[in-house]
Amino acid sequence: MNMHERGEMGQMRDCIQQLAVEIARLSQAVEPLVRMQQDQDSLRDRVAQLEGFRAALLWLSGLSVISALFRYLVSFWMGGTDR
Q1: In this structure, are residues 47 and 41 in contact, taking their beta carbons and an 8 Å threshold?
Q2: Is the pLDDT of residue 8 over 60?
Q3: Taking CA 56 as the corner, what is the angle to CA 49 and CA 74, rounded to the nearest 5 degrees?
């Protein structure tokens, strides 16, 4: 290896070290974004659960209303003897 090649090798080592430092900085910068994405996914799952719960409550309340209406109609049809 001559002096010119050794100089180029030294420059390449410096560039690689600088690249490693930049990669470490980028990793640190991206870490909060990854946590935010995980939090967002968790919130999305929670909202989906709540929407399912809401749909179940609406279905049950609708069933209750239909049941009450049916009882009212039956009592009306029977002449109101159940009142």
Answers
A1: no
A2: yes
A3: 175
Tokens of 25: 């900085």
Gyration radius of the chain's alpha carbons:
35
**Separation CA 43–CA 37 (nearest Å):** 10
Other beta carbons less than 10 A from residue 75's beta carbon: 13
DSSP 78: T
The answer to whether the pTM exceeds 0.85 is no
What is the pLDDT confidence band of residue 5, given thresholds at 50, 70 and 90?
A: confident
The H or E element spanning position 69 is helix 3-77
